[in-house]
Amino acid sequence: RQERYRQLRFKAPVTLDGVRIALNTNAGLLFDLPHFDESGADGIGLFRTELQFMIAPTFPKMGQQAELYSKILDGATGRPVTFRTLDIGGDKVLPYLTRSVQEENPAMGWRAIRIGLDRTVILRTQVRALLKAAGGRELRVMFPMISTVEEFVKAKELVKGEQRFLEKHGHALPSSLKLGAMIEVPALLFELDELLSVVDFVSVGTNDLFQFMLAVDRGNAKVAQRFDPLAPSFLRALRTIARKSAEYGKPATLCGELGGTPLTAMALMAIGFRSMSMAATSVGPVKDMIRSVNLGELEALLAPALNRPDGPPIRKLLQDFAESRD
Ligand code: PEP
Ligand code: MG
């Protein structure tokens, strides 16, 4: 199988009925670059910048951040890279970042963009590093754990401010800059029109979105496996995001674990996703699946199932569908 996936490296992820699906990888360190390259992915769909911070003894300096981002862009050789600003807090703790209170529910606490908007020096420094590293090149940045459109707008203004600062000081700016929001907090589903009017793209973080929609702690083994993300309720939510984004002409991609197995990726394609980001090791198996299915058939299979929360499990339908093709 490994050999089979290796051979797929230079083949495009296109379904039997000719639909091209973009496959990207999730990354976070320089160490990920060779895996990204071997996977034959279209780009890096999620670069988790917090990893550099988590392995450092103290806040990485602006220059160190810029150096890493620049090396990542070099390694991607023109393929798009989407950097996510710091997502610390929750399960990702930085010992050197002081907190005033002990949190009972850190996943819903002071984390990600909330820290960035409160301690703007942290976000500003990171944004400056990103803008500098991408001088003369394309830059894509997204913000984690956005809960309201207003938060995204504030983060966007901060980026624009940094851009003006660098321009005034004669630095080369990115040749293009795209700013996106991660959809991980359910409230955004009810503000999609407003959100899609101000973003360049959205990226669905299904790990967090599922945790918050079902109120099921993703890190708690006792409950984490209790509900199936392929249940109609969750797939309907994801379908709404895919449809609305298409309506607004804004690319929607998905970077949670759900994109990373052939079976779940099948469901995501069937409800409208045309771009996914996953671990480098998932690209081969997912591509293999894409090249063996007819998307029209898959859509016809899933559409009625989504209308029936009381119907047979969608996972089972997809398993049967996959087996019938083997
Ligand atoms: C997610 O929540 O789905 C996601 C991609 O972000 P992380 O797993 O880093 O929280
Ligand atoms: Mg997340």
TrEMBL record:
One of its GO terms (molecular function) is metal ion binding. It comes from the Bacteria. One of its GO terms (biological process) is phosphoenolpyruvate-dependent sugar phosphotransferase system. Keywords: Cytoplasm, Kinase, Magnesium, Metal-binding, Phosphotransferase system, Pyruvate, Sugar transport, Transferase, Transport. Its main location: cytoplasm. Belongs to the PEP-utilizing enzyme family. This is phosphoenolpyruvate--protein phosphotransferase. It comes from Pleomorphomonas carboxyditropha. The gene is ptsP.
